[in-house]
Here is the input.
Amino acid sequence: MLVHSKGGRWAAWSLFGILFVPLFALPLLVVVAASFSTHWSGAFPSGPTTETYASAVRGESLQALTTSLVTALAASLLALTAGTWAALAAAGLDKTGRSAKLGRRGKRALDALFMLPVAVPSVVVGLAVLVAFSKPPLLLNGTSTIVVLAHTILVTAFAYQSVSAALVRLDPAYEQAAASLGARPAYVLWRVRLPLLLPSLTAAAGLCFALSMGELSATMMLYPPDWMPLPVRIFTATDRGSLFAGSAVAVVLIATTLLVLLAVSRIRTRASYR
Here is the structure.
């Protein structure tokens, strides 16, 4: 910590606890408590049960969880590919020597293009995708592809920004050394540049996955009946008044996302040591 005195550290931790507990920890604890309850008429829940979890991990809920995982994995891979390619292209534009001013303009244009989906409400992105792909030649309305596409559009900006920030910090000496030894640009990219970016790539993949797992607004406008992600399942359960069943499904969503992020963090740690 930047605070060196004992009193200052206690004050910093106290302030952190005051802000963290009511704003972050308490809402999650309420959801967990509700997931193990059947009634909540007083200050605390009552009627402890695990039946809500029995229904949360089978049937339609299990199918919705599988749908969310497939959607998030596909969207994360597509977003990581597109975001990395765009970040590398933008870095190349920024280094253009013959027309540096034009290159900087091109980089700013790419930055604005990839940040636009997160600058507007996600429901607007969902509407745009729905209008754009509801008629031939690309008729995707009513398919799972349109949901994956919308999620990809929404999370690509985070992959692009993460890789762009890593490229700025990347030491060009490694690439220059490989090029001076006769390595071709493609070899330098695959064997030098991308391995150095691996920690940032895994971090971007984890962020894209987590955001896709929790996406609701755009998904509500696009999902077909046979491709219902878990956030939509939670919304429909709570909308019908099944608050305790919805809480159990929400805990399953949180636990699944955290497990995947934990696995990604281990990959990132190994990549950092490498």
Q: What stands out?
A: The chain is about 80% helix and 0% strand. The mean pLDDT is 85. Residues 59-273 form a domain with the MetI-like fold fold (CATH 1.10.3720.10). The two ends are 27 Å apart (CA to CA).
